[in-house]
Structure formats: structure tokens, C-alpha cells
Amino acid sequence: MKFYISLIVSIVLLSACKTDKKESEKNKSGVHEVVAQEVLQVKDYTYIRALEDGKEKWLAVPSFQAEVGKTYYFKNGMEMPNFESRELKRTFPTIYFVEGVSTDPNVSTILNSVNTNTIDTNTINLSPKSKPKLEKKAVKIKPITGSVTIEQLYKNAKQYEGKIVKVKGKVTKFNPAIMNKNWIHIQDGTEYNGKFDLTLVTDAQGNVGDVIVIEGKVSLNKDFGYGYFYELIVENAVLVE
């Protein structure tokens, strides 16, 4: 009898060790395993309410025929707080955008999700080459010594590429804590070929309506995935005043 008890205990312990090993390998690989609880379809994306280790989370994936009750795997995921979907007429407290999911847990078959920066939270359609819908504000900001205007930046983009510039503008939109960065839109009343908005990636805080002066590096043709493409953006921006 003692022999059988010992054998059973050994089998249980061995099974537990294998399970722990699998869980450890899964965690190290960054693979997430979720079970679909609800599926919502819009024009270009599939929204999935899923459970991962008993916790609920929402995913947004390029359109595919997802099924309730099915298990899916994905890597990383770009977390978006307070994401508003106008197509669904609802705001998600937190949602994860991923480039793709798989029914196969094999890491090599799973698409890497976007892991840099963000999607504008006020944009609803994540269709290819879509852009944030921006509204030009009635602002008129006087440049300061050593600064450039938004018009000058866009007009002479190549000249400023990779360089540190100083810009003064009014905050028209502030999206905090997305991929560990804050995203600020500013306008100064100038424009070039219809381009009047400048996006800043920063650790600094900004309130809509504030007039700020920033310094940052100009980057051109930045593609953050999901069709979100910035012809010009200022990264690593810091507040000067």
C-alpha cells in the first residue's frame, strides 16, 4: 500500500513540475493564452473579450473570424487606456492592440505585436494609412528666440530630420501613459500644406490649453503599425518652459 501511495505522490509531483515548467517557458517567451468570451466585429477590427488566468481583458485584432470559447495565443500587446471606439459607441478602460493571434501556442507562429509608441486614442478606424482626425484651433503663438514654427518644421522637414528643435505651441490634446510615454499635440497657428498639428512624445505632463516650449528630436516617416504613420514627429521631448 505504501508503495502505491508513494507512486501516486511521485506522479502528481512530476506532473506539477512539468506544468510549472511549461508555465515558466510560456512566461519567458512573452506568449499570452486567452479564451474568447465575447466577439465584436467592426469594419477593420475584431474586438475580443477574453479571459487570461481568470482575469478579463479586451483585445483588438485585425479582422478575422474569432469564435467564442476558442483559445488564442498572442505576444506582447500594446496596452491602450481609456480607448474610445466610436464604431462601437463605447470606451474601453483598457484594451490591448495586437497584430495577430494564433490557435497554435508555438511562439514562431505568433505575430509580434506592436511594441512602440501608440495609436491616437481619439481615432476610431484602424484602417491602413488612417490618420488622427484633427481640428485646427484658433491660436496664434509668438515664437521665441531659437524656436521654429510648425510651418517651418513641415516646410523644411528634411533639414530638421534627426536634429533637436525648440517649438512653442498650445496643447490641444494630451494622451497620458501610453507605452510608458505621454503623447502631446500642439498647435501654434501656423501651417504648411494643411499640416498644423505637431505630435510630441515625452515624459512630461501637459494640460489642454497650456502654452508650452519643448525641445526634442525630429523624426520623419515613423510607422507605428496599424496604418498609423507620422510624416513628422518630435520624440524624447522635454519641457523648456
Automatic annotation (TrEMBL):
Protein's name in the database: GW domain-containing protein
Organism: Lutibacter profundi
